[in-house]
Design a protein that fits this description.
Largest sheet: 6 strands, mixed
Structural class: alpha/beta
CATH class of one domain: Alpha Beta
Helix content: 40-55%
Strand order of the largest sheet: 5-4-6-3-7-9
CATH architecture of one domain: 3-Layer(aba) Sandwich
CATH superfamily of one domain: Bacterial extracellular solute-binding protein, family 7
Distance between the termini: 46 Å
Order of helices and strands: HEHEEEHEHEHEEHHEHHH
CATH topology of one domain: D-Maltodextrin-Binding Protein, domain 2
Shape: globular
Number of helices: 10
Strand content: 5-15%
């Protein structure tokens, strides 16, 4: 099979990716659900501030959810796999976030549900496109951004921010999807389809582990550039958790308004919480390191 690869934005922009795959502009496309906020409402449960220690845990939980509930969000495409970014932190340029009150008055780049979380924490969300964030921070248009350690390196944010606060306990990762046009998949010969399906399974796990590894590179670059990494105290974690509960409540209300039952939506959330706990225990038991998360998954603990 010959595959023609187009870099991001060359064939389709991220916001146009989903419809572009449905319409056959691209056979396969990769993007995340917040670029079309509200378009995949069931899957957005994975973006609620439930607290994820790593991309590995978040992605495993998201794939379990997709397999279990088969969201109608994806009825028009062939889902190859789902993965997520690593836990989002809060990067700021001038004012450190050490307690909940520190977010008051700060404008933080955060789209979709991530923006709802920032607002609940007392900040002002801005839907600034990622390629524009560096300049927006350097010029003082925004005070920082909410994303993972990886962006400190890939987008050079470590050059314009001074502080990185880890908030994995209430974080909401960015759910990503790799989808294929249904007709393009159906036209594959049976033998090629079998090889394709096998490789998708293999590379799904590679993709999930990749997100864990890139955070280490981003954090190292941040340290090199003098970024201060901040961990919240236990008291502050409790305050942050209480502050974001309305985001979860509002999601439930919004989905009920769309015609789902309250019990059904709360069942999705309970399932995700259970899967987070399950996969966190597996991450610790299998000694899979991550740059964020509880002490048990930090590299310094795993090498003992």
């Amino acid at each position: 099979m010959k595959v023609d690869y187009f870099a991001g934005g060359a064939l389709l922009t991220a916001p146009a990716m989903f419809d572009g795959v449905i319409d056959g502009v691209a056979d396969i496309g990769y993007s995340h659900v917040y670029y079309t906020a509200g378009r995949m409402p069931i899957t957005e449960v994975a973006g609620l501030p439930l607290g994820y220690p790593s991309a590995w845990v978040a992605a495993q939980a998201l794939n379990d959810f997709t397999d279990q509930f088969k969201p109608s969000d994806w009825d028009k495409v062939k889902v190859l796999w789902m993965n997520t970014s690593t836990p989002s932190g809060i990067s700021t340029s001038k004012k450190a976030v050490r307690k909940l009150e520190d977010l008051k008055g700060l404008t933080i780049r955060a789209p979709g549900l991530a923006g709802d979380v920032i607002k609940a924490l007392g900040g002002t969300p801005a839907p600034t496109p990622m390629p524009e964030v560096y300049d927006a921070i350097s010029k003082g248009v925004i005070d920082g951004e909410a994303s993972n350690f990886e962006t400190l390196r890939t987008f050079k944010f470590a050059e314009v921010v001074k502080y990185e606060t880890s908030v994995w306990q209430i974080t909401n990762p960015y759910p990503f999807y790799l989808v294929m046009n249904q007709n393009s998949y159906a036209k594959l010969p049976p033998d090629i389809k079998g090889i394709f399906d096998k490789l998708v399974g293999e590379y799904k796990e590679r993709s999930i582990l990749m997100w864990n590894s890139v955070d280490f590179v981003g954090k190292a670059y941040g340290v090199e550039k003098g970024v201060e990494f901040i961990e919240l105290s236990a008291d502050e974690v409790a305050k942050f958790k209480a502050a974001v509960e309305p985001v979860i409540d509002n999601y439930v209300k919004g989905m009920v308004a769309k015609g789902y039952t309250e019990a059904e939506v709360k069942g999705w959330i309970s399932f995700m919480r259970e899967r987070i706990d399950f996969w966190t225990a597996k991450q610790i038991a299998w000694r899979i390191p991550s740059a964020a998360g509880p002490p048990e998954v930090k590299p310094e603990a795993l090498i003992k």
